[in-house]
């Protein structure tokens, strides 16, 4: 959400109340932040035995047409390629791990050219993980199997066994992280 005013309007329209002034709403929201910071470590300590979904997405700082002209934060930000969108971008990459219900368990912000497979091999402490085609690779699968982590990825269209592996019900679960 880009503006607090828009968030306030959305909350008022969704819950149907207009009695709370906007400034008071902001104050209450500001008081909730320390409470959420206090509660979040306890949620992270819970043992999530359910399926964990991992994915990564680019964060664009400028339109792709400006990639080679930009001088903004050259040391910290660089150009990367997003295969799913088939585009080059100037920015960062965010890697997420969420539960089926949408609770964010872990995130990592990296440089744009960092590969999803390399990051996943180091940062996945969950037992059952669902990834997309970016995590498809024999080396990563063997490394995670050695740690006792089961990684499920869909197969590409030209690979053997696609009918048995790419079950629509499992592919639909990925919609949790894609939205």
TrEMBL record:
<dbReference type="InterPro" id="IPR025668">
    <property type="entry name" value="Tnp_DDE_dom"/>
</dbReference>
<dbReference type="Pfam" id="PF13612">
    <property type="entry name" value="DDE_Tnp_1_3"/>
</dbReference>
<protein>
    <submittedName>
        <fullName>Transposase, IS4-like family protein</fullName>
    </submittedName>
</protein>
<feature type="domain" description="Transposase DDE">
    <location>
        <begin position="50"/>
        <end position="177"/>
    </location>
</feature>
